[in-house]
Amino acid sequence: MTTATIDRTTGDDLKFSVLGPLTVSAADGSQVALRGNRLPALLTELLFHANRWVPMSRLVEVLWGDTPPKSYVSNLHTYIHRLRGRGIPIEQIGGGYRITVDVTGLDLLTFQAEADAGRQAVRRGDYEAAAWHFRSALRQWRSADMCAIDQPHLELEAARLETERIAVVEECIDAELACGKAGELLGELDMLVRQYPLRERFAAQCMRALAATGRRAEALEVYQRSRHALVDQLGIEPGRQLRQVHEMILNGQ
């Protein structure tokens, strides 16, 4: 029979942030200290999977890679005990652990909840609400440099979450274009196209915004730059969506 043991501290007053350097804040705004490298790495992994069970094997892999010490079980228990001692609510379930956090207590959960709300608004056709929720989601990110902890497995997960962030940026811009905010988006889109030259959706959005504000020639230049980047770096031609936007602008639509 699987049993669960929960530390007496609930951690209700703690706020966790992983969308940027890891921080744990108390109710009075003071920061909870996590010294060394192991405690932040362990807590970050649990927060990346908040409210879900994380097997011990995964935590060992994050902390020590392929060469764990012989005492890894007792070492892991010690680290968990230290986190609990700081009021962090971690429960043990069989051969793994779980941290229980409210949506408002972790920026990652808030980001995901707001992004989901934005997508629901898109499905309803309410693009103003969708844009508001998407922007609220993106405001949770303090920095794209999420993982300052030198742990390859955490870096992979941080990269996956960064991909999620970029996708939400794309969804947000689509919603704002649908609201007629093309002129307001030109500066942001110019930066995104230059920062992500292989993201065809950003190029298509930039072209749409430029064309909507009467800058047709500049929109066609964006297409040429994007095409050259794709051909030079990936050896491929632009995809269907980008080609369609290009043809529509050529046809004056």
From TrEMBL:
Transmembrane segments: none annotated. SMART domains: BTAD, Trans_reg_C. SUPFAM superfamilies: C-terminal effector domain of the bipartite response regulators, TPR-like. One of its GO terms (molecular function) is DNA binding. The keyword Cell membrane does not apply. Residues 106-250 form the Bacterial transcriptional activator domain. Gene3D superfamilies: Tetratricopeptide repeat domain, Winged helix-like DNA-binding domain superfamily/Winged helix DNA-binding domain. The keyword Transcription applies. InterPro entries: AfsR-DnrI-RedD_regulator (IPR051677), BTAD (IPR005158), OmpR/PhoB-type_DNA-bd (IPR001867), Sig_transdc_resp-reg_C-effctor (IPR016032), TPR-like_helical_dom_sf (IPR011990), WH-like_DNA-bd_sf (IPR036388). Keywords: DNA-binding, Transcription, Transcription regulation. GO terms for biological process: phosphorelay signal transduction system; regulation of DNA-templated transcription. Residues 29-99 form the OmpR/PhoB-type domain. Belongs to the AfsR/DnrI/RedD regulatory family. This is DNA-binding transcriptional activator of the SARP family. It comes from Kibdelosporangium aridum. The lineage of its organism: Bacteria, Bacillati, Actinomycetota, Actinomycetes, Pseudonocardiales.
